[in-house]
Design brief:
single chain, alpha+beta, 6-stranded antiparallel sheet, 6 helices, binds 2-acetamido-2-deoxy-beta-D-glucopyranose
């Protein structure tokens, strides 16, 4: 099925929201990734971030930042972030040793300082979800401790970008969102062009990309698009699982691929298309995730 924009009026609106707590992503196959595979997965993401900052800070000068109305102190902070990512790379390389994967080639979406800022926010936020989602596969305690220490820095960076720079919320809800390895890979692989064939294969696969209209907000009914050609048999009823924190909110997807975004959502949300109204596991994932960031209380008012 190739999903195209519906030409009909949106007659079907999700009438109910099936609220359900979904256990943080568990893999549905029996192959448990090894510590080295997980560390190489983390290193792949750190290489990606490192390349993004190296390239971005080469492309955009201090004057470019100022011209984009970014504060004079902002670019220096990104230099610090770039140094952190470079340090994460060398740290993981030293832990993994000779099996450490090499950097890939990338195609980043940023074209100016502001899209550099929003891409940076997305990369750091997905990084947090990657580390928290992957933690369950680490068996060695010092790996768990060091990846927790990296996770915390990525969370601070993400919070700094969205609050100090984008003037929006510094956090999401009481819980951040641990993401399934394949869901992380679906987001990350979108900017990866190719990787060295000598790299250790990662225990991940990407699902078809899912996109929401730009600026979509909670409470709105919007049309989503995804390429479900790879799905062998698309079941009659699909859902959008809005994964946020330790749970997900399931909303039926209409036949025209429209969905009502729950008005209760705050902060960063990872929607996926599922064939289940209760699970967000790999075996029910049809497409996605997408990355949505709903700003709330941006002016500091206690509006809720
Ligand atoms: C998906 O995998 C889970 C185990 O992770 C299993 O409990 C569930 O029944 C599977 N669902 C389908 C639709 O195969
Ligand atoms: C959809 O998937 C098919 C098969 O994988 C591919 O050939 C096509 O280019 C994809 N289209 C889009 C828009 O991603």
């Amino acid at each position: 099925m190739k999903v195209t924009p519906a030409s009909v009026t949106l007659l079907v609106v999700a009438a109910f929201h099936d609220l359900c707590v979904a256990v943080p992503a568990k893999r549905d196959d029996t192959s448990i990734p090894t510590d080295i595979q997980i560390l190489n997965f983390a290193l792949t993401l750190e290489h990606l971030e490192n390349a993004f900052y190296t390239q971005g800070l080469e492309k955009y000068t201090q004057q470019d930042f100022l011209n984009a109305d970014l504060p004079a102190w902002a670019r220096g902070r990104w230099n610090e972030i770039a140094q952190h990512e470079s340090t994460h790379v060398s740290f993981l390389e030293s832990v993994i040793g000779e099996q450490a994967v090499q950097p890939c080639t990338y195609s980043f979406p940023d074209t100016d300082p502001m899209s550099f800022v929003t891409t940076s926010f997305m990369l750091e936020t997905v990084g947090v979800s990657a580390y928290s989602g992957a933690a369950q596969f680490l068996s060695q305690s010092d790996y768990i401790t060091s990846s927790g220490a990296i996770l915390a820095v990525e969370a601070r960076q993400s919070a700094w970008i969205n609050s100090a720079i984008l003037k929006a919320n510094p956090w999401n809800t009481a819980f951040d969102t641990p993401l399934d390895l394949n869901h992380v890979w679906t987001l990350a692989s979108g900017v990866i062009v190719s990787c060295p064939s000598s790299n250790m294969p990662l225990p991940v696969k990407a699902f078809p990309a899912l996109s929401f209209p730009a600026g979509a907000q909670p409470g709105q009914t919007v049309q989503v698009s995804f390429n479900a050609t790879m799905v062998p048999s698309v079941p009659p009823q699909l859902y959008v699982a809005f994964i946020a924190g330790l749970g997900a909110t399931f909303v039926p997807l209409s036949a025209q691929n429209t969905v009502e975004i729950p008005s209760t959502l705050q902060g960063v949300v990872f929607p996926i298309i599922t064939s289940s109204s209760t699970a967000v596991t790999d075996n029910v994932t049809i497409a996605g995730p997408a990355f949505l960031s709903f700003h709330f209380k941006a002016d500091g008012e206690d509006e809720l």
